[in-house]
Amino acid sequence: MGAVELAAAVVSPEQRHRPGLSYPNPLASNPAGGPKWAATVTMADGAKLQVADPVATRVMISLMDMNAVVGGAACHFGGPAALAEIMSSIHGIMYTRPGIWHQHFNFVNDAGHTENGIYALKANYGFAGVTLQELKGFRSITSKLTGHGESHLFPEGVMVSNGPLGSSIPIAQGLALADRLADRQRTTVCVISDGAMMEGEAKEAICAIPGLAGKGLANPFVLIISDNNTMLSGRIDADAFSMEPYFSGLANQGWRVMRCAKGNDLQSAFSSVEAAIAAAESDPQVPVVLIATTIKGFGVAACVKSSSGGHGFPLTKPEQLRAFVLEITGGAALAPEFAAWLSEIEAAGVAKAAKDAEKAKTPPAHPPAKKDKIQGGFPKAMITAAEKGLPVVSVSADLQGSTGVAPFRAKFPQLSFDVGIAEANMISTAAGFSKQGYIPVVDTFAQFGATKGLLPLCMANLSQAPVLAVFSHAGFQDAADGASHQGLQYLAMTGSIPHLLTYCPASAEEAEWAMGHAIEHFVAERKAGRTPETVLFFVGRENFLVSIANGQPYAWGKAMTVKDTLGTTTKRVVISATGPMVAMAASAAEALAKEGIGALVLNNATPNRPDVAGHQAALATCGNRLITVEDHQVLGGAGSTLVTALVTSGTVPSVRLLGVHGEFGQSAYLADQLYAKQGIDVAGIVAAVKAATA
Ligand SMILES: Cc1ncc(C[n+]2csc(CCOP(=O)(O)OP(=O)(O)O)c2C)c(N)n1
Ligand SMILES: [Mg+2]
Question: Ligand 1: distance of its center to the CA of 231 in Å?
Answer without folding.
Answer: 6
